[in-house]
Design goal:
There is one protein chain. By secondary structure, the chain is mainly alpha-helical. Helix content is 75%, strand content 0%. It is built from 9 helices and no strands. The chain is globular.
Length: 185
Amino acid sequence: MDIAQTKRKENIAEYILYLWQIEDLLRALQLSPEAIYSQLVAPRQIDEEQKHLYLLWYMDIVNLLRKEGKEESGHLEHTLHLIGDMHNLHLQLMQNPVGEHYRKTFSHLAPQLPMLRTLVKKENISDTELCFRALYAAMLYRIKGDKQRSEAIKDTIELVSPVVAELASLYGKVERGEVDLFENM
């Protein structure tokens, strides 16, 4: 809860990936309030009121997963909408003068996108969502200790990470009013 709030303020990409991780963690605990409490809440060194707030936060996510029919797989609409917003920013940056540096960064990744689509097995998603799915897959490979798959996409991830990092940074700056997308137009 507190980690998510901090990540949301500081880095939208880390926030999205963190929530995806929480979704999978809650599924691994079979969306059970008892398991969530014993595994994720009880071990925290916080008072009972705080523990209650944490459990409510996790259960809100569980309820959203159920409501959206994503108990087994998939990602919450909330995060997919944020990725959609980021993709809209990507499209603006690809056209507007303020995106000159971003376009250079993205140009290194662009030739790898068809291969990445094949690896991720998602044809009808935006380039931005593709990048997030690739980063998340790489993260899961590392967590699971799947060195073969980690190595197979290592070069591509080295191209994806700077694109997502720059896009997330610009997203935050636009959101805070620090960057004008239409400057110099």
